[in-house]
Predict the structure of Lysosomal membrane ascorbate-dependent ferrireductase CYB561A3.
Amino acid sequence: RSHHPVAEMLDLPFLPFCVLLGGLGFVCVAFVSAWCQHWRGGFALDGSAQTFNWHPVLMVTGMVVLYGAAALVYRLPSTWSGPKLPWKVLHGALALAAFGLAVLGLAAVFRFHNDHGTPNMYSLHSWLGLATVLLFSCQWLAGFSAFLLPWAPAWLRALYKPVHVFFGSTILMLSVASCVSGINEKLFFSLKNGTTEYKRLPAEAVFANTLGLLILLFGVLVLGALARPSWKRPDADSPDSCQVPAPLR
């Protein structure tokens, strides 16, 4: 079968892509941690502003990086043959870990708001973030019931699978939007009254804006990998499902 030269040039191997994406995810977590440590005063569990700092770190780690890893489990060629149950468990476990970190992140911000008399759930960022976590919880429960519990019939799994895939990508997109809007909101609140204003673009603003772009790039690359036909796991009833996957390059 002939390929267009441009298509062959852009046909990247999956393993190096995973290494690149893993490195980018690590950089995202490192950036948000460094931002909170260096410019926002570090971390604590006493309800202070340092308690709030756990919120962005846990949300980026859970709802973006870990969730992105969970979404890409079935793109690994080693999952294309043999028992599927271990990969289902890994996919569900990574998603559950992401959800757990998100719940802790929400607890941190609610604790900070309540201890300082700040109203909860008044901004677009808060609405979007909570809606994303709630949708994620429904997605996980529905996926667990349909794909891991033994009583779900095959026709129900086949019917729900495209819905599960669609909302998986949607939740990642919403997670990225929540993180980026949260970074912007925090900068607007923090860079005033005795500090260099946000509009003057101080070093903290440059660093945090760069963090937002890195998170956006991570999300785009995950969505691109999910949409790439050559990296999709063949369906069980597809002729390609009996083929041995090509070796990683």
Notes: Confidence is low (pLDDT under 50) at residues 5-9, 237-249.
